[in-house]
Amino acid sequence: MRKAVVLLFALMLPLVSMGLMKDPYSYGYAETDREGTRAFVTPSYDHQEIVRDDIVLRLYPDYPVDDPSTVSSDYGYRFLSECSRCSTSHNGVDYPLSDRNNEVYAILDGTITRVEHKGEFGLHIYIEHFIYEELVYTSIYAHLKPSDVTSSLSVGDEVVQGQHIAYIGNTGLSTGPHLHFEIHKNDTILDPEKFFEKENADLKSVS
User: Fold this and answer.
1) Is the pTM above the cut of 0.90?
2) Which of 1, 8, 43, 163 has the most CB atoms in a 10 Å sphere around its CB?
3) Domains of the chain by range and CATH?
4) pLDDT bracket for residue 173 (50, 70, 90)
């Protein structure tokens, strides 16, 4: 009887490791990350407490412009006397047009979920960056200049990190040519400058 149990357990191990069946000693599953580089079993007692930092740490986002050190409007509260309609709660950062800042780039691999010329954002693009089921970033690029580069993009298109997707423009509700950039983590709006600082610092800490 004991030999039969040992044999059965030995036959089950490959299936568990591939995520094809549930671990009999756990309420979780053997899972593999999106790129198939890692597997783990989630025990019942900490199923909701797994922090997949090893995936997050692989993020190394590019900035959306060539010179991110030049910012004309930070994230957070602001008051623009020349623009009474402009929001005092700024959900992103503004990168002004300059000799170095003209082209706009995708910060990570992702899928375009919106590309349209409408409202206060003018011509704008939304890109969804799926990291794993519970972690999805969305990057927003607004006030873009109409161009063949942007007009060639459609909802559902896959873009790669660093891909040229637009030019800085002055469309929509804008006080001058600039890129308004936002980054959302699931349903939370992040400070883009802190986002880049954190992700880049995290990567350097393990490199």
Assistant:
1) no
2) 163
3) 2-49 (no CATH), 76-206 (2.70.70.10)
4) confident
